[in-house]
Amino acid sequence: MSTTVETVSAAARTAPPAVIVAIDGPSGTGKSSTSKAVAAQLGLSYLDTGAQYRAITWWMLNNGVDVGDPAEIATAAAKPVIVSGTDPTAPTITVDGEDASGPIRTQEVTSKVSAVSAVPEVRTLITGLQRSIAAGAERGIVVEGRDIGTTVLPDADIKIFLTASPEARAARRSGEVKGSDLAATKEALIKRDAADSGRKTSPLAKAADAVEVDTTELTLAQVIECVVTLVGEKQAAK
Ligand SMILES: Nc1ncnc2c1ncn2[C@@H]1O[C@H](COP(=O)(O)OP(=O)(O)O)[C@@H](O)[C@H]1O
Ligand SMILES: Nc1ccn([C@H]2C[C@H](O)[C@@H](COP(=O)(O)OP(=O)(O)O)O2)c(=O)n1
After folding, report:
1. Average per-residue pLDDT in the chain?
2. How many structural domains does the chain have?
3. Atom of ligand 1 nearest to the CA of 26
4. Full residue range of the structural domain in which residue 160 is found
């Protein structure tokens, strides 16, 4: 009995304190790649909140909801059951038990997700889900999105806001899809930024206490190192 208690307290002494990391920024700044790598390196959970908004959008498109009608979106918002797996080396997302990781990345979903995610009822539901996932992450979590530092987890231990020039972001996104048109990618990305930043309910914004990192001239490895260092400093000070 006393061995168990000693083992537990020894583990508590050596394990770093749980840390909540919020990473926000527009599309193509490196949020997902950075967050996954940082979480994997530090043994933290990982949550891609954009994937959840994509998942609810995909469900609406599949279930005959008119995504041009905010009232219809609001009425349907609570129907799909969205489950996120938080292992940074193998993140998953299911909708009503079905793997949605592939279909949520289609052009159709990408072009409609800003409209669906602007509806307050959608945000309230998804924000609640995100907070409960973060609260359940025993060793801490890296949560990435648009409003994590400002709205979802305003008490996060560390907040990072990633930026990059539209040219760099479009080139990165274009590089992911064979034969894609760079100018069209840039135009679509700027349009989505404007919609996400301009909406009334928790728009894409940098929290006042976030550290801004411009990734335009940085390699992914440099961004990861920078964030790991910032998180390590916070953990040491806890
Ligand atoms: N600093 C960087 N330099 C070059 N390419 C990058 C950098 N950060 C991310 N990328 C690449 O850009 C693409 C978009 O990155 P991603 O992490 O999905 O961005 P976000 O989640 O912000 O939309 C990916 O192909 C990724 O490998
Ligand atoms: N916390 C969040 C995360 C994403 N969203 C919305 C707005 C974004 O355009 C979409 C898709 O986000 P996602 O991070 O998947 O987008 P990119 O991978 O950067 O292209 O979801 C949001 O409103 N709030």
Report:
1. 93
2. 1
3. 22
4. 19-232
